[in-house]
Specification:
This protein has 106 residues and is of the alpha+beta class. Helix content is 19%, strand content 42%. It has a single domain, classed as 2-Layer Sandwich (YaeB-like fold), CATH 3.30.2310. The chain has a five-stranded antiparallel β-sheet with strand order 6-5-4-3-7. It has a two-stranded antiparallel ribbon with strand order 1-2.
Length: 106
């Protein structure tokens, strides 16, 4: 499955294995895992550089209807040579804190 990501000027791949990982480890995103990932990649509220990996970005978006209001974070790895982007994981947090802010929606 592929999602449009204007920020990366391309598409981001979500494999079945990664979707299963997200659903198994972060059930609070179910049953709308795909929709939350799609919305976060299409219109993020913030993009951060990962503190753990130079090839990863953390896309985040606030959702009022998740557990009384939480951020969905989608971690995308980008391979520079092939310009391939893929979701490694996605999760829900109350507060953003990891990584250097690269872009914020006005």
């Amino acid at each position: 499955m592929r999602f449009s990501c204007p920020y990366l000027a391309g598409e981001v791949e979500l494999t079945e294995e990664r979707e299963k990982h997200v659903g198994d480890r972060h059930p609070e995103l179910l049953p709308k895992v795909r929709d939350r990932i799609r919305m976060t990649l299409a219109e993020p509220h913030e993009v951060r550089r990962s503190a753990r990996s130079a090839d990863a970005r953390l896309f985040s978006r606030w959702f009022d209807d998740i557990m009384g209001g939480k951020h969905v974070v989608v971690v995308v790895v980008s391979e520079r040579r092939t310009r391939r982007h893929w979701v490694i994981t996605a999760y829900v947090v109350s507060k953003l804190g990891q990584g250097v802010v690269e872009w914020t929606r006005n």
